[in-house]
Every structure is written in C-alpha cells, then in structure tokens.
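Q: Entry one of two.
A:
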Amino acid sequence: MKKIYLLFYLVMICFAGYCQSADDYYNIGNEKLENKSYLEAIIMFTKAIDINPSYYLAYNSRAYTKYCMKNYLGAISDYSKAIELNSNYSEFYAGRGMAKDEFGDLSGAMSDFTKAIKINPKNYLAYYCRGIIKNQIENYTGSIDDFNNVIDIKPDFTEAYYNRGCAKSKLKDDNGAIIDFTIAIKLNPNFAAAYLNRGLSKLNLGQKESGCMDFYKADKLGNSKAKKALFDLCK
C-alpha cells in the first residue's frame, strides 16, 4: 500500500507542475550560462539531454559552456553530436570550428568555418574566424577576402578592419593598411594596437612624425610594445 501511495504521490507532484521537462532544464541552463555559472549550466543541459537524447540545442549550449570553460575536446564532442542530430545549423559548425582552433586543429577549424558559410553565407563570424586562421598561416590574400565579406555583412565590425589592415601590411600595402587602421580607430578610439600598427605603416612610408604620434597614443592607452617602438624608432 505504501508503494502505491508513493507512486500516486509522485504522479500528483508531476501533475502539479513539479516535474520539469527537457525545455525547463534547457532554459534554466541558459540562465546559468548567461550568469557564467558554468558547472550548474552543464548540469542543467545534461538533465535536458537525459530526458530528450535528441535535443540538439541542449548539446549545442553544453558545447558552448564547455568552450567557455576551455574544455575544448568536450566542446568538440558536443558540437559533433549536435551536428549529427541536425546538420542544418551554421552556428554548430562555427562553434566546433572555434573549439578546434583553440585546440590547435587549424585545418579542421577551417573546414568547419567553410561548412558554416556554405549553410549560411551571412555568417560573418565564420568568415572572421576563417580570416584569422588564414592570417596565422600567412595566406594574407585569402584573409583579406574573408574580412571583406565580414565588412560587407557587418560594416561596424572593428576587428575586421584591424585584421584586414594587418594583412595588408604584411603584403606591403601600407596605404591600404593605414586606411583600415584609421577606420578601426574611428570605431574604437581606444584601440591601442590599431594606433601602434598604423604608426608602423606610417614609418614604412616615411611619415615618421605622424607615426611616432601614433606610438605615443598607443603607449598612453597601455600597449606594451608602443614604448619600445618610441624608444627604438622615434629618437
């Protein structure tokens, strides 16, 4: 009789709204994630997945949580499961690409960013991340193409101008680099690295006084390399 009563009691609790659904745990997990309570978020997303093993959004959110915790292998595993369950989300591939990049798998990351772009050609973050990797592997022309796409989609993306300027500088296009660094500074007047690199491009063009003024500004903004540039290049 006691077992029957216990079963009846549990059923009544569920009907009264105390039994939480996968969506409930998922929503709580996202709240925890937003508050950077990562361990609690993972617990909630795991409970959602236990209830609904096909809950690809929960796998995606748990993957991102693991990424935030620098558990990149765990993030890759969860992103892969989300993709297995639903391969139509550009964000899943982009997220896995970011995790692979942090783990050091640049080739795998590039592949995932390319897949993300194929699904959604407006995914500017995928273009941006792929452009960063192309800069790292010294494919500067390719990186400029990717940053061009970022800027076409999101014209106020400060870092895209800055990184495109860096790529142009590597290709000895100092005039083009100065234009991009100047736009980056206009969008973010406290962008110390943009002042530093604009100063270097100006010096390459023989504009020493203006370049040293940029180093001075970068130094005032706290850029550690600017002080050395002032000492070495502005005597």
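Q: Entry two of two.
A:
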Amino acid sequence: MSDSDRIEKTYISEEGMNDLWNVWYSELHNGQSGLTVKIDRIVESLESEFQRIDVLNTKDYGKILVLYGSLMVCDNDNNAYNEMITHVPLFSHPSPKQVLIIGGGDCGALTEVMKHPEVESCVMCELDEKVVEVSKRHFPALCAGLKDSRAELIFQDGKKFIENTHEKFDIVLLDLSDPVGPAADLFQKEFHQKVFECLNDDGILVAQTESPFYNKDTVRSLFANLNQVFPLVKMYTCFMPIYPSGYWSFGFCSKKYDPVADFDETRFNKLKLPTKYYNADIHRGAFQLPQFVQDLLP
C-alpha cells in the first residue's frame, strides 16, 4: 500500500473532544480552601441593585443559588439551615405568635415558620427583591410559605426597619448573609441591642453566626457582644454541606427561655413536622459543642 492510499483511508477523529464542558464553581475561604462543584449548566445570571445573583445546576447538589459569589441554598442540602434557624426557637418559646425575619431572601426560613399554627404573623424584611423573585422561579419549595396569609414581605434595609418599627416580636431571626458590605452593620452590638428592644419581655433572637472553624475571630466577637446584650446566650450548630467547612453555627439569645430546658417536645410530636434534618434529638444535641468551639465562647 502506498503512502497516499494509507492517508486516504485514515479516519480522522479526536476521541477526547466529545465533551469539553469543564466549568466549575468554587467558594474559597481567604482564597485557600473551600468547596468546588462542577457546573452542569448556568441556569440564570443577573445583577440586582445590590449584588450579582446566579443560579447554577450541579449533579450532587441540584440547583444552587449563589449571591455575590457565595453559595446560599441548594436543592440537596437537606434544608438543614432553614430548619435549624427556625424550629429551635419556635419550639423553645411557649407562644410564638409574632415572628420577624431579617434577610432570608430565598424564603426558606419563612416557609418553615409558616408550618407552626401558633404563629399569627411573620414579617420578612429583605433588602433585595430580586433574590425573592429568583428564588420563586427556581426554588418553589422554599417559597411555599409566601402563599400563607400570615406572611408579610417588606423590601427594606433590615437595620432601618429595626430602628423605625414600633412592633414587638416574640422571635426575631437574623437570616443574614456574611458580614460584608451593608450586611456587616447587622452583626454589630448596637444592632443586637436594637433587636433586644424590639422583642417582647420573653422574646428570643436567633442569628446565624458563621463557621466556628473558618471564622473563629468573628464567632468569638459575636458571642462576646451577644452576651453583653442578652441574659441567656447559647451556641448551637448544624451540618451544612454547602457552607464553608460544612459546620455552621447559630446564636440562641433569650430574655427568658432556655432552648433545652424549655424545649416543648410534646408540641413537636403533636405537630408531626415534615423535616429532613431537624428532630427532637437534634434539637438537644445541637447544643453539645466540641471543645475547640467551646473555647471560642465567653
């Protein structure tokens, strides 16, 4: 066979170029370590007045919501964050009628609050209306609570709302993003004092308080401040696979009720909540902290 015949009969193909899609999302702590996920598809990307908003599709986590480059919620995180920020205080307060959420634009916390028949009203004060709009399109299960007549949405700066409101609440939930930009004001002692004044005499504040692994200085300072405002402050934690380190904390701050001693397990059993993460054992166990976390607390 001549060289020319051999060339004519060669079928030219690059086997390694069938699928060149290789797009990844990474959220790194200080640019050093964190979570990296392969992206199947960019579902939606836009800019609001306040931040960039992305919805991405992944194999392991389903759809994920990313705000300013930081992962907030996804389809497959077992709803741990939303269930823990809401049900722990709601089952610790004997009569949680008036609830306020500052932040919470994905509406997951609101939806969990609405599962409690004792709640008469829940105000959600969110800065960025676009986050709610995007969440309604792509995370309808998280937004189911919006259909409840007891829910009220206010699009306003949370700090201004707290400073100007004359309402009193049984429970306030600080469902905030990280302490960067305008949101940082809502992590300060002065703001926590204002929230204290908006609570009824037996009120409870729960705030997300970052990762005890990555954000040690922030956690230490937050709990030092909270202990100067509230007579009872305790940390509890949950496993949150999409957040930095996978280990997340909350500050339970109360004027009266202890989250373990006053946990209403009878009401919990009677309500038969459809949860993926929260249960009676988790409610109690979440307050048991590793030694390195205890060392961060006053």
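A: Comment on entry two: The first strand starts at residue 23 and ends at 29. The domain at 80-294 is CATH 3.40.50.150 (Rossmann fold).
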